Amino acid sequence: MPNRDTPMGFRPAQGVGAKHFIVRFPVDSGNGTAVFVGDVMDLNAQGSVRPAAADAGVSAAGVCVGLYDSNGIPVGHPSSSVATKYLGASTAGYADVALALPGAIFIAQAQTGQTPASEDIAETTDHVAGAGDTTTARSRHELNFSDLGTGLQFRIIGLVADPDNSWAEHADVYVMFNESAFGVSAAASV
Fold it and tell me: Could you tell me if 93 and 108 lie in one domain?
């Protein structure tokens, strides 16, 4: 059975040894891109964050895991000034970010049209920054397997163990940030 094509952005991995430190950052109204849970986030001016462009490099802060309006109320809540469950472009608010710290493991889906394999474990790659899904309010950021060994943003750890997941198109894989603003520096693939 083929893997499902359900991009949900990046998400913290759960389980033994999972280390995730979450920090709330402001999102500046000057940000011209909508923010979705699962987006890889970039450090921006004056301590704020924004969705990262593909191959964000060492400015990557981590992964968005929660969104709030400018009063700190969860987006989409009846009392929130933001009716959607995502933060629209040019809208000020806050994002909870699971930091890209050494040892923090995340899950991401391989981009459509690419076929990861077990030989890709320990390779490096970048992400693809697709526009979020306004219906599900989830990110569509995915792993870019076309730049294995040359893209340095993430290191592939392994396949997510799930009966409906295999080394094939749309595989869910474990990754760690290989480049980030918080102490992870790029290194070539092994």
Answer: no
Predicted confidence at residue 189, as pLDDT, reads 46
Residue corresponding to tokens 């040359």: 150
The rounded distance, in Å, linking the Cα atoms of 5 and 3 is 6
Q: Which two tokens stand for residue 178?
A: 């290989």
Cα 156 to its chain centre, rounded Å, is 14
Instruction: Note whether 174 and 13 are within 8 A (CB).
Output: yes
Q: For the chain, what is the domain count?
A: 2
41, pLDDT greater than 50:
yes
- For residues 130, 54, 170, 97, the Cα torsion angle rounded to the nearest 10 degrees is -80
CA distance 49 to 93: 10
**pLDDT value at 16 more than 60:** no
Confidence check: pLDDT of 19 > 80:
no
Provide the residue range defining the domain that includes 156.
Answer: 103-177
Question: Given 44, 65, 99, which residue is the final one in a domain?
Answer: 99
Cα 102 from Cα 91, distance rounded (Å):
31
Token representation of residue 130: 């697709």
Which tens digits make up the pLDDT trace of 62-98?
999 999 999 999 999 999 999 999 999 999 999 999 9
Asked if 67 and 94 touch (Cβ cutoff 8 Å), the reply is yes
